[in-house]
Amino acid sequence: MNRTTFLETERLVFSTWNEEDRALASALWGDHEVTKWISSKGFLSEDEVEARLTQEIKRQEEVGVQYWPLFEKDSEVFVGCCGLCPYSPEEEIYELGFHLTRDYWGKGYAMEAARAVIDYAFGELKVKALFAGHHPDNEVSRHMLSKLGFQYVRDERYEPTGLMHPSYLLKKE
């Protein structure tokens, strides 16, 4: 794999997005089954996928985090992304997020990736807490955040969907 790996788990390697990743971004954020959870219209246009990729690249350059692309260690196949974005930087709170391609749903990859990112956030970045939210109808994400130890705090409006999303915090032990 001729990508830079900066984090890995038993089955996954984390890289960083770059301009050559348009096809990967499109495979993920161009899939209506993935984006129905993160967009009010249920999908992202090609331009919106391109903007999302650009936003991730820019966030890495500016603040050193992004929703990093994930690859299966053995096959090098693209699995999705998992990572961080600033939520309340002045309080040292980052947001955890993950989006997986449909072929990798239900295989434990999101949990594995999220645990690695949580360890990275608290260990390397020394954040005080992690925020996470999910679409109100996404029971899988709700269950996963609970298993990761996140505590429900409130419903919060999420602009991209226009809905009130259940929101959670995970504080450093």
Can you offer a commentary on this structure?
It comes from Paenibacillus xylanivorans. One of its GO terms (molecular function) is acyltransferase activity, transferring groups other than amino-acyl groups. InterPro entries: Acyl_CoA_acyltransferase, GNAT_dom, N-acetyltransferase. This is Acetyltransferase. The chain has a single domain (7-171), classed as 3-Layer(aba) Sandwich (Aminopeptidase), CATH 3.40.630. It has helices at residues 22-29, 32-35, 46-63, 109-123, 139-147, and strands spanning 7-8, 12-14, 67-72, 78-88, 93-100, 129-133, 151-158, 163-171. It is globular, with a radius of gyration of 15 Å. The chain is an alpha+beta fold and 173 residues long. The model has no long low-confidence stretch (mean pLDDT 92). Strands 1-2-3-4-5-6-8-7 form an 8-stranded mixed sheet, with helices on both faces. It has 5 helices and 8 strands; from the N terminus they run ββαααβββαβαββ. Helix 1 (22-29) packs across helix 3 (46-63).
